[in-house]
Structure to design on (269 residues):
């Protein structure tokens, strides 16, 4: 566990002064991130975390990922639902795709900088400011609050929508080839599911898909609930590893035992 002083050395607070909310630099950064969210559906802060620390963290987690991670191998549609009211089973929006990944949970990351960053108040206060939310809370769930996901050669995270309003990730290790983050912003709205547009996306017929070649150490925040996104198939010998931080607008969020069993194959108890 590291303190705030050490975190200020690990996060590039010169470029990204998230620890100085009263500064002009902070206000400019928040406005830039809000502008990117509005214009692109996401913002990316390259080099947010020190490159040596990122490489060291990936090296520490690689053997754990090989021996301790849970594997998720799922055939699913973009909604992760068995059926959608009002849609015929053969509608293109319900096309089945495959996702394979490996996960380390928060209780397997307690000795890493990832937990320290997650629990550092300036981090979540900054994310809240960029999302124009008054406050964000840490998740209480001891497994789900922070995860590291790995995609090995031949594996991918396929098209889906997130359950949360926004998603916060930090890339730890890029693949040799492939493993590219792709997203389609605002593919649906709260009032319109846009099923036909979703079907065109799944068929590869959407010119508005954006590719982002994320570099290790980059912080990415995007609106995941209405933004369809995926990670393309990893190629080469090196796995892709990414940390996912769960922040909520209300305190005390926990997954049920059934949810934890479904996601991780185990419960916290």
């Amino acid at each position: 566990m590291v303190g705030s002083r050490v975190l200020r050395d690990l996060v590039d607070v010169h470029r990204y002064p998230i620890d100085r909310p009263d500064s002009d630099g902070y206000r400019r950064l928040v406005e830039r991130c809000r502008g990117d969210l509005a214009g692109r559906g996401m913002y990316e802060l390259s080099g947010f975390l020190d490159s040596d620390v990122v490489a060291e963290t990936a090296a520490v987690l690689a053997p754990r990922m090989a021996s301790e991670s849970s594997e998720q191998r799922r055939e699913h549609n973009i909604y992760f639902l068995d059926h959608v009211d009002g849609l015929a089973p053969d509608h293109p929006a319900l096309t089945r795709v495959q996702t394979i990944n490996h996960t380390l949970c928060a209780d397997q990351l307690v000795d890493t900088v990832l937990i320290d960053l997650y629990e550092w108040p300036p981090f979540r206060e900054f994310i809240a400011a960029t999302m124009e939310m008054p406050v964000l809370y840490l998740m209480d769930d001891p497994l789900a609050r922070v995860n590291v996901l790995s995609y090995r050669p031949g594996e991918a995270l396929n098209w889906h929508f997130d359950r949360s309003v926004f998603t916060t990730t930090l890339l730890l290790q890029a693949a040799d080839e492939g493993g590219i983050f792709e997203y389609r912003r605002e593919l649906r709205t709260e009032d319109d599911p846009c099923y036909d547009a979703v079907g065109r996306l799944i068929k590869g017929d959407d010119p508005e898909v954006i590719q982002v070649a994320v570099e290790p150490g980059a912080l990415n925040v995007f609106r995941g609930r209405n933004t369809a996104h995926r990670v393309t198939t990893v190629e080469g010998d090196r796995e892709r590893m990414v940390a996912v931080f769960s922040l909520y607008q209300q305190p005390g969020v926990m997954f049920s035992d059934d949810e934890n069993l479904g996601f991780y194959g185990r419960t916290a108890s």
